[in-house]
């Protein structure tokens, strides 16, 4: 079952189209990474999921319900850490946790204690005295303290030092394995997405250009060096989308595609080509190929 | 709802306390000053008779403590400082959340926007009413200290009119706070609207625009009974502005 389903969702701000025909499915229990360059529509997608905005077109459901209509009920099941995480500076860390817990009708004790064993955040201090990284961590405390079924994190590790970032990702992994938590994670830090996510979607200019499992993408995206016979070229390859092609000489090409290797070899053979070499690419290179295309 | 109200109180308690203290000091001082003004302006004897007559005509009637409190407290100091307090409290209510980027946090919690607005309105309007009651108490205390206790029916009626008028100002500030995502601009616009209406109300064809009318007329001094029309107009205006605020907030995207 899918926790989040977006089908053909568009969102415009006046003349500006932030999302255009966006499709996305987030399976239950997964750690899902939404990746894309700045301005590609990641934060807009998240705001739509929380009912903070309404889509201009398309269908969006979270736990099978519409966020704009059933927002209050849905948000009780969701923990959310915004990208630009501002909190009430006059409150202490503990006060904001208790305030949040009262809004969710729950107690914070147990979950906060578990997180405190890892991060030791000074909860008695006013938020005004917190660093950016400490505020991000407090955001994680707030989001996890209410035992959500879905955790939505918008650029959560931005501003964290490498050690805390590693602990942060560790806590996410632990929480996912401890209970049936689904994590929706937006980031442009490729290494952490590769490390923690099982499924990813790449976004470019307001829509998803790829959604698949991380391991599947890494296993299937290849650069094929192909020699084509006279009168043939990569344009003759059928049924497989070529991501990038580059002529090395008159009849030899580097062709990049996301496909099963056997299928790719067959497609090249059908197009009059012979595969000379096959190379894999690092995950960040694959991401660049999709978002720059 | 209780948690939201606690948050509003926690956030605005200093403003409410300062408002109460400041207004109370002014109320007390205005009443105590009556002791010196009751017999006319000191030094009037030295003013040439033709000017003294003119000044007497222009001056409010200070021979009656009710008239003095009406002209100097209810329709002047309380109105002006109370309006500023109403604008400061409510002008930042929603605009402050947007400006300080806490709106995303607050509106992504499992509470309705109506509840968030209601908590703000209940606490901040409550703080405003408290400031009016405490400071009017101060004004009455000052009058008692100088041995000129005002008529209680007059104080009650004038306080009711003041509360209605200040709530109307606060409702206007709430509406602008929802419309304008900047605290200072929301406050300036609210103040600007009240000033423009006050100035326009000075001209006879537009007298009905004058927000002073919401405080009731000077007839309260002679007949200390709440005047139905200003009270109903104030309540209806406030309800309309709060209703529009709620509707706009529901439509807004964060």
DSSP strand content of chain A: 25-35%
What is the average of the pLDDT values of chain A? Answer: 87
Largest sheet of chain B: none
With helices defined by DSSP (H or I, 4 residues minimum), what is the helix count of chain A? 10
* Largest sheet strand order of chain A: 5-6-7-3-8-9
Write down how many β-strands of chain A occur, each being a DSSP E stretch of 2 or more residues: 13
Task: State the end-to-end distance of chain B.
Answer: 21 Å
| Oligomerization | heterodimer
Describe the global form of chain B.
elongated
What is the number of E strands of chain B?
Answer: 0
Category by helix and strand content of chain B:
mainly alpha
Enumerate how many helices of chain B there are, as a single number.
10
Radius of gyration of chain B: 20 Å
GO molecular function, one term (chain A): ATP hydrolysis activity
Keywords (chain A): ATP-binding, Nucleotide-binding, Transport
Pfam families (chain A): ABC_tran
Protein name (chain A): ABC transporter ATP-binding protein
Describe this structure in words.
Chain A: InterPro entries: AAA+_ATPase, ABC_transporter-like_ATP-bd, ABC_Transporter_VariousFunc, P-loop_NTPase. Chain A: Keywords: ATP-binding, Nucleotide-binding, Transport. The complex is a heterodimer of chains A (293) and B (254). By secondary structure, chain A is an alpha/beta fold. Chain A has two domains: 2-205, P-loop containing nucleotide triphosphate hydrolases (Rossmann fold); 220-292, Alpha-Beta Plaits (2-Layer Sandwich). In chain A, 36% of the residues lie in helices and 31% in strands. Chain A is built from ten helices and 13 strands. In chain A, strands 5-6-7-3-8-9 form a six-stranded mixed sheet, with helices on both faces. Chain A has a four-stranded antiparallel sheet with strand order 11-12-10-13, with helices on both faces. Chain A has a three-stranded antiparallel sheet with strand order 2-1-4, covered by helices on one side. In chain A, strand 6 (150-154), helix 6 (162-178) and strand 7 form a beta-alpha-beta unit. In chain A, helix 3 (93-104) packs parallel to helix 5 (132-145) and helix 4 runs antiparallel to helix 5. Chain A starts with a strand and ends with a helix. The model of chain A has no long low-confidence stretch (mean pLDDT 87). By secondary structure, chain B is mainly alpha-helical. Chain B is built from ten helices and no strands. In chain B, helix 1 packs antiparallel against helix 3 (65-91). The model of chain B has no long low-confidence stretch (mean pLDDT 87). Chain A binds chain B through residues 47, 50, 52-54, 72-73, 75-76, 78, 80, 82, 84-88, 90-91, 95, 99-100, 102-104, and chain B through 2-4, 6-7, 10-11, 100-102, 104-105, 107-112, 253-254.
